[in-house]
Batch of 3 targets.
Target 1
Amino acid sequence: MTEQPKFAQIKQHIIEQIRAGVWLEHQRVPSENELSDQFKVSRMTARRALSELTEVGILTRSQGLGTFVASFKSQSSLLEIRNIADEVTQRGGDYTCMVLSLESIFAIAPIAIALGVEIDSQVYRSVIVHHENDEPLQVEERFVNPALASKYLQQDFTALTPHEYLTQVAPLTEARHTVEAVMPNEEVCQWLNMFNEEPCLQVIRRTWSSQGIVSFARLISPGSKYRLGGHLTFKK
Amino acid sequence: MTEQPKFAQIKQHIIEQIRAGVWLEHQRVPSENELSDQFKVSRMTARRALSELTEVGILTRSQGLGTFVASFKSQSSLLEIRNIADEVTQRGGDYTCMVLSLESIFAIAPIAIALGVEIDSQVYRSVIVHHENDEPLQVEERFVNPALASKYLQQDFTALTPHEYLTQVAPLTEARHTVEAVMPNEEVCQWLNMFNEEPCLQVIRRTWSSQGIVSFARLISPGSKYRLGGHLTFKK
DNA sequence: CAAGAATACTTGTATATACAAGATGACTAT
DNA sequence: ATAGTCATCTTGTATATACAAGTATTCTTG
C-alpha cells in the first residue's frame, strides 16, 4: 500500500458523503458486500471501515437490517449540552418554554464574527426561556445565519427547540462550546426572574454544518439550579 | 457460542486485570500471540480484543513494541479537567503552585460521605493554589482516603500534583465530576487573592480506584480567568 | 571494539472462507 | 385470508493464512 490503507480510504469516503449531506441522518449506507464490490476489497476490509466508524459513533449497525448514519445527538458523548427539554422531562419535571423574542437584526461586530457573516448584515435572533415546573431554568439567546436556516423566524419553538430544528434543516458536522461562570446582567436577571444577584453558568456554543457556521448560542442558567455532570469509567 | 463471544471474554479479562491493579499504567499486556495461545483462539480474535480496547483508549499499541495499558489521562477525552500544570505550560505560561495546607483532619459528615468513610474518622486534606504567571488561577481543596494513599502527607506537591501522585499509588478506574457556578466564600477569596466578589467556576470531582473512593476534590477558579472548552466533530 | 546484518519478536493490513443469527418479503399450504 | 415456511438479504463471530513494517537483540564481520 503506497498511500493510505484501503479501509481508511473507505472510511474517509463515507465521512465525506455524510459531511457533504449526501447521506443524511438515519439513512442507510451501503452494506459490507456493496462496499467490497465497489472498492474491490474483501468483505472483511469493508467491514472494518464500517465497524470503526460505528465504534466512534458516526454510524449505527443492526444485524439483519443494515448500517445507518447515526444521529448527531449520539455523537456528543461527554460534554453534550443535552437538549434541555429532554433533560427536564427525563427527571420527571414539567417542561415549558416561552419565546421572548424572535426577530431579524443587524449583526454588530462580535456577533457577525462569531457567525462568519458581514458586519451589519441581517441575522436572526431568538430569546427563549426554558422552565422547569414553571420556574425559569435557562435562557437561550441564539443568533442564526439566515443563509442556512431561512425559515427560522416562522418556527414554533414551543413545539421543537431551536437546536432540534436546526439539526433538521442544516445537518450538524461540528460544535464547539465553552463553559464559564459569569454574573448575569440586568437583562438576563429579568429573563430568569432573578431578584438578588447570583452567579450563573454560561455555555457558549457555535455549531457548524457542511455549508458553514449555522448558529451561535448563549445558554445561561442560575448556578443554584443547574449544573453540568460528567462521568468517566473503565467499564465498556 | 452459548454465552459471550470469545473476543468479549478476552476484553473483559483484560479490563479486570487493569481494574484490579494487576497490570498498571504503561505496563505491557500480553501480545496477540500470547493471548491467542492462552485463550485457544486465533490471532485475529485476540487482536480484536486488543484493538477495540485501544480504540476506546484503555490500551495503546505500537508496532514492533507491543500493547500497553494507557495512562488514565488519555481516558478522559472531552470533559477531562486537564492537569492544570500541563494546561498552563502548554499555552506558554509560567506555572507555580503553593501548598497552603497539608494535614490530617476529622471528617465531618458531608466529607465522610463523599469519601465513603466513617464520620469523624481521620482523612487527609490538602489545599493548593495553582498560579499562572504568579497570579492565582485555581484553588484545589482535596480530601483523600488515607487507606488508599497512606503517604499522602509526605509528598511534595510542588513537584507532582496530587492527581498525578494519586494515579500512581491508586490506579484510577472511575471519575465523576460536576461543574457549576458559585460565589466564592471568604476563605476562597483569600486563597485566590480576590478583592471584589466575582463568580467562580467550581468543579467537584470524585475519583475511584478498584479498592474504593480515593479522593474528593473541589477545584475553584475565578470566572474571569478560567473556562472549560469542549469540541465535537465528525472528522476522525 | 564497533558497525552492520541477520533474527525474532511485535503490531498492521488484507484476503478467503465458514457458519450463526436477525430481518424481511415472497411464497405456500391450510 | 392467515399463518407458517423458505429464500435471501443483512450484520456478527471466528479461523487460517500471507505479507508488510517497526523495534530490539544477537551475531557476525571488518
Note: Residues 1, 31-33, 47, 50, 61-67 of chain A lie near DNA strand D (CB under 10 Å from a C1').
Target 2
Amino acid sequence: MSDDVDLKPELCNCLAVRQAARHVSQFYDQCLAPAGLRTTQFSILAKLKRRGPMTINALAREMVMDRTTLGRNIQPLQREGLVAAVTGSTDRRSKELHLTAAGAARLAAAIKGWAKAQARFEAVFGAERSRELRAMMRAVSASELADDLAAAAR
Amino acid sequence: MSDDVDLKPELCNCLAVRQAARHVSQFYDQCLAPAGLRTTQFSILAKLKRRGPMTINALAREMVMDRTTLGRNIQPLQREGLVAAVTGSTDRRSKELHLTAAGAARLAAAIKGWAKAQARFEAVFGAERSRELRAMMRAVSASELADDLAAAAR
DNA sequence: TTGACAAACGTGTATATGCGCTTATATAGG
DNA sequence: CCTATATAAGCGCATATACACGTTTGTCAA
C-alpha cells in the first residue's frame, strides 16, 4: 500500500456536507436577496417568530451554532432594527432576543423568496427525497460525535 | 390560514444542510487541529495531492466553491509554504496551484486525524448510511438549482 | 494589426464561523 | 455574609464565504 489511508476526497463525509451546504446556501441566498436577507438571517428571524423571545445561548443551541457566532450574526439584524436585545428580567447576564415589528415585516416579505427556493429545490430533488435529506441532516446535527474525543482526552 | 406559508424552520432544506455542515465541520476541525489544519485546508491539500497541479478556477469548480473564496483560502497555505502558486506556462492569466513537499508532509501528518474523524462518524452514523449521505450530498452539490432563476429573470 | 469580446485572477466589502480569553452576574457552601 | 464556582455574554483573532468591480491576458474576426 502506498499510503496509510488511500486519499479519496469523495469518501469524506465532512467535505460532502460542506460542499452541499455551499451550493444550497448560494441558491437560497439568491432567492432571498430581493428581500435584503441572507439565509442565516432569515433562519434567525423565523426561529424568533415561531418560538418567541430567546436568549443567545438558547437560540444558538437550536441553530446548532456557536454562541459567539450567533452573537455576531445578530449584529446586522440589530443595526437594521429587525431584532432587539434586552437584558433578561430574572437573569441580568442573559440577553433576550426579540423579533421587532420591522423584523416580522421583513420576514413576511422574505417568505416569498424562501418558498420559491424551497419549491425549486423540491422540484429538482423530489419531495420525498427532500424529506429523507432533512431527516438525515437532523440526525447528523443531533449526533454526538465529540463524545469520544472527550473520553480519549481523559 | 394565518400566513402565506406556515413558517416551520424544520422544513427548510437549506437550514438542515447548513446546521449539519456546522456540526460536522466542528468535529473534523477538532480532529485535524493537532496537525495544524482546518477541514477546508485539508480538503484542498488532498485534492492537489490526488489530482496534481490545478488552476484556481478548476479547483474552485471541483470544490463547489466560489473562485474568490478559494483564492483567499489558499493564502494561509501559501504563507506556510504548503502550496505554491505559479503563473501558468501557456496562459499567463492563470495560476497553477502546486502541493509542495512541506504540504505533502503536513497532509500525511493530518491523515491520522481525518481517519479518526471519519471512523467516529461512521461508527455513530453507520457505514451504509454514510454512503447514502455522501451520495445524497453529491447529488445536491451537482444539482442545477439556479437554472430556473436565470430563466425567470428573462 | 487592431479592436471587441471573453476568460483568469485580484481587491473591497460584508457576513459567517468558532476558539481562547475576559467580564459580569448568579448560585451554592461555609 | 462571603467566597468558590458556574454560567451568560463580549472581544480579539483567524479563517471561510461570496458578490461587485477592476485589471491583465488571451482569442478571434474585421
Note: Chain B has seven helices and three strands.
Target 3
Amino acid sequence: MAIEPLHRWDLSPDEARALQRELAARVDATRALGPCRRIAAADVSYNKGDDRLFAAVVVVEAGTFEVVERSGLVAKAGYPYVPGLLSFREAPPVLEAFDRLADRPDVLLCDGQGIAHPRRLGIASHVGLWLGIPTVGCAKSLLCGSFDEPGPDRGDRSPLIHKKERIGTVLRTRSRVSPVYVSPGHLCDFEGAERLVMETTGKYRLSTPIRLAHDFVNELRRQGGAGGST
DNA sequence: GCGACAG
DNA sequence: ATCTTGTCGC
C-alpha cells in the first residue's frame, strides 16, 4: 500500500501557500465520521539545535486504548517552521511513519489544526488528502479565528469562526482546564471530530492516542538525541 | 501599517 | 517544538 505523491514539498513559502489554496478545495469536511475501531495519532518532536525530526504514529483499539501498533522514525527536517506552513515541515515524516504501519487505522488524529487554518489546510487536512482516510485536527493553541469562551465543564464547547465561516470547535475536554481546538481534517465533519476527541479523552486534557504518540516520539528523541544511526 | 502566528 | 525549578491546587 504505497502512498501516491500528491505534490512536491520543496516549495518556496509563496508557492506553498498557493498550493494550500488549491488543495483546500479538495478537502471534504462534510462527511459523517463512521465507526472507528482502530484509532491512530501522530506527533513530531525535535531538539533545538538539531535538524533532525522524530515522528511517530501510534494505533490504539477504540474503547480500551490498547496499543495495537507503533511506528517511529528520525528524518532530516526539510523545511523550517513557518506559521501556517507547519505541514511542509512535519507532514513528510508523519506520512513516512504512517506508511510503515502494517494495517491501516480507521482514523488519524493529528497534533495541530485541520481546516481551522488561514487557508483551510492545517496539517490534519493536508495529511488526510495524502492518505485518503478520515483525519481530525486537535491543537493545544489557536492559529486563527475567534470564539466565545466555552462553559467550565467537560464537554462544553463553542464554535470557532474565521471570516464569517465555521472552521472548528473550541472544546473543553476537562472541567476547569484550558480547552483544545478541534477541527475536521478530511473525510470528517465537525460533529465527528468533536465526538472522536471526546471519546478518546479521559482524565487528561489531551486525547489518549495523541498523548501516547507524544510520549513515544519523545522517547525516541531522548534516546536517539545524541548521534545518528550510521 | 500593526499585531498575530499550530508545532 | 525545546530550554528548565519550583510551586499552586485538588
Note: The domain at 17-223 of chain A is CATH 3.30.2170.10 (archaeoglobus fulgidus dsm 4304 fold).
